Amino acid sequence: MMNLPPTVKAYFDAANNQDAEALLACFAPGAEVEDENNLYAGRAAIRAWKEESFAKYRPVQEPRSAERNGAVVSVVTTVSGNFPGSPVDLLHEFTLEGDAVTRLNITLA
């Protein structure tokens, strides 16, 4: 895997292992995730979002490129799984504060 900040690498490792606990550890308590025009605020909502995604889609994410601009790390991934149009390229924009993700925005790349 490319040279990603440790927290971002841990997020993708946890996501690909479908480990909601490890994934949740990447986020600050008040973090927000925006995915498919839905906003998930706080760890409980983020956990529910990922557990549903794991069960429904069985996604596998392969980071293709990454760049950092201050606190924001942008990663383009190819995501495959049990969903129409698989695989698809997505842009993950992580906002980091220290070692924690405070915001993650996921859109089509």
From TrEMBL:
Among Pfam families, the record links this protein to: SnoaL_2
- Please state every residue range assigned to the domain named SnoaL-like: 8-103
- What name appears for this protein in its UniProt entry? SnoaL-like domain protein
Q: Which species expresses this protein natively?
A: Pseudodesulfovibrio hydrargyri
